[in-house]
Amino acid sequence: MDYDAQPREYFLNGVSTVLDIHTRVADLYSSPHDQIKEQLRLTIETIKERQESELINNPEYGLLASVADEQRLSTLSGPPTPDDFDDLLRKVWKEPGFFLAHPDAIAAFGRECTRLGVPPPTVSLFGSQFITWRGVPLIPSNKIPVEDGKTKILLLRVGEKRQGVVGLFQPGLAGEQSPGLSVRFMGINRNAIASYLISLYCSLAVLTDDALAVLEDVEVDKYHDYPVNYK
After folding, report:
1. How many CA within 13 A on the CB side of residue 123?
2. How far from chain centre, in Å, is Cα 19?
3. Are residues 51 and 73 in the same domain?
4. b/e burial code for range 141-167 (CB count within 10 A of at least 16 → b)
5. Same domain, 29 and 116
6. Which H or E element spans position 73?
7. 178 is in which domain, residue-wise?
8. What are the angstrom distances between the C-alpha of 202 and each of 40, 44, 53, 94, 114?
9. How does pLDDT run across 6-47, given as a tens digit for each residue?
10. Nearest alpha-carbon partner for 15 in 207, 201, 223
11. Contacts by 53-57 with C-beta closer than 8 Å and gap 24+?
């Protein structure tokens, strides 16, 4: 393998916001629920939603922008069929981790499987049921864009040991709550407003080209009419 004298540098993308809470609210309404804790939880969930969108759609490091040209496929006929999913598996054939698709795309795939008489099996993950294809689960994300009735479906191999897609974060942040996420108290102003700085730093890297593939031009608005025949 050729040595790259100037390898690509990955910069962590920062998402930050400030949560303001009046001390009166924290003092008077923190039973049975801790108001500060709950407000922080809701704010962190909002930031994580933004993180998910950035990891998929960021033009510099997002999954959709990181797919190599030879790993891009188009559907055979428009709707996502089992044959299309087999083509994706052909591109990421070494230890594929999961498909990532908009819920509309997963529903469209389910309709095609029903039409062909090959209902996909399900698997229990994180306490919920997910459909699978060839043993690989389909994970939904509404952050994958749907435009003019078309979307994209990703297939990933994940993990550093597998030379797949890996997440990047800064360890050891002040006030660290989870990898790359920190919460810091900024003080109380003269109006008795307590402020908290919530920061999240993230990025991702695709270690090898064959760790990521995408199925493009996936139509999600096609439905089938089934004749009703009674004996």
Report:
1. 11
2. 25
3. no
4. bebbebeeebbbbbbbbbeeebebbbe
5. no
6. strand 72-74
7. 15-57+167-205
8. 19, 14, 12, 26, 39
9. 877 888 888 899 999 999 988 888 888 889 999 999 999 999
10. 201
11. 53/143, 54/13, 54/15, 54/202, 55/167, 55/202, 55/204, 56/100, 56/141, 56/143, 56/144, 57/143, 57/145
How far, rounded to the nearest angstrom, does the alpha carbon of residue 136 sit from its chain's CA centroid?
A: 16
Q: Can you tell me the distance from the alpha carbon of 101 to that of 88, in angstroms, rounded to the nearest whole number?
A: 13
Are 81 and 137 members of one domain? yes
What is the three-class DSSP state of 41? helix
Structural domains of the chain, count: 2
**pLDDT for the residue 33:** 86
Instruction: Give the residue among 81, 16, 14 at the shortest CA–CA distance from 43.
Output: 16
Find how far residue 164's CA is from the centre of its chain: 15
